[in-house]
Amino acid sequence: VQLVESGGGLAQAGGSLNLSCAASGRTFSLGAMGWYRQAPGKQRELVALISSGGGSRNYADSVKGRFTISRDNAKNTIYLQMNSLKPEDTAVYLCNAQNVLGPGYYGMDYWGKGTLVTVSS
């Protein structure tokens, strides 16, 4: 499976960006998917997760009420709508997908290469 992110760039504080992550390959093996981010000198952190069917979503406290994760399984794509951006949201945003091998069995997660989001004050 290949995951390719897009939509990053430069935004002003208070602005918005919409990230996309398109999956290709053995997409039938994808389970939950999500977005992580990593700022320079900091550890990678979870931003948002969405279940395989899209009915369950979880967010980091720092983005609740500002970011929305969604999923279009027909397009094998997830999205992250980011509103009210803050300078502290500046990071490389990486797409992640759970690798489902069978009922209750999982392989190594899939990762994209990331897209850079820079928020200026």
Structure description:
With 121 residues, the chain is an all-beta fold. 0% of the residues lie in helices and 60% in strands. The chain has no helices and 11 strands. The chain has strands at residues 2-6, 9-12, 17-24, 30-38, 45-50, 57-59, 67-72, 77-82, 91-102, 105-111, 115-120. Strands 2, 4, 5, 6, 9, 10 and 11 form a 7-stranded mixed sheet that branches. Strands 1-3-8-7 form a 4-stranded antiparallel sheet, with no helix packed on it. A hairpin with a 6-residue loop joins strand 4 (30-38) and strand 5 (45-50). It is elongated and about 45 Å long. The N and C termini lie far apart (37 Å). The model has no long low-confidence stretch (mean pLDDT 96).
Summary?
The protein has strands at about 1-5, 10, 15-25, 30-40, 45-50, 55-60, 65-70, 75-80, 90-100, 105-110, 115-120. With about 120 residues, the protein is mainly β.
